[in-house]
Amino acid sequence: MHAPVFMGPANAREGSGYMLVSGDQQIVEKVKPLLEKMTGQLVNLGPEEGKAAAMKLIGNCFLVAFTAGLRDTFALAGALGQQPRDISGLFDIWNPAQMLPARIRRMSGGDYTKPSWSWQWPAKTRRYLSIPLSSTAATWPLCLQLLR
C-alpha cells in the first residue's frame, strides 16, 4: 500500500491536506480510519499498486512547473516595472487555474485539430511589447523566449 501526501508541516499538525492511497483494498479499508485522522482528505486511487506514488510524483512535477511559471511571471513583471503585489491583485480577480480541468480534458482528448491557442497571437503581442530586458535570451522569462 502507498499513502503519499500533499501537505506541509502545518497541514500535518492540523490534520489537513491531502493523502493519496492505493494498493490492496482490504489493507486500505483496515487502515482507513487511522489515515483519515492524519489528513483533510483521503483519496483512494484504487487497487493498482504504486498508483498513489505515481500520482504524487506527477503532482510534484506540476508544482515545480507551476513555481517556475510564477518565477517567469515575476521576472516579466519586474522587467515591465510591476510589483509582485500587483500580480497578486490580478490573480485575486482572475484565476487561470479555473481553466485547468478543461485544458487537461482538451489536451488528453487527442483532438488537436481545433487548437485553443495559436502562435499567431504572439506576433501581435510582440508588436505591443517593448521590454527592456537583457539581450542575453537565457536571462529572459521562458514565456518571452517563446515569443522571440
Topology:
Layout: E1 5-6, H1 9-14, E2 18-21, H2 25-38, E3 41-44, H3 51-79, H4 84-93, H5 100-109, H6 120-128, H7 142-147
Parallel strand pairs: 2-3
Antiparallel strand pairs: 1-2
Task: Give a quick set of tags describing it.
148 residues, mainly alpha, three-stranded mixed beta sheet, 7% strand
Mind explaining what this structure looks like?
The chain is mainly α. The chain is extended.
Question: How do you describe this structure in short?
Answer:
With 148 residues, the protein is mainly alpha-helical.
Question: What characteristic shape results from the CA principal axes?
Answer: extended
* Secondary structure: helix percent: 55-70%
Structural class: mainly alpha
The secondary-structure element order is EHEHEHHHHH
Q: pLDDT below 50 for ≥5 consecutive residues: which ranges?
A: none
- Give the beta-strand count: 3
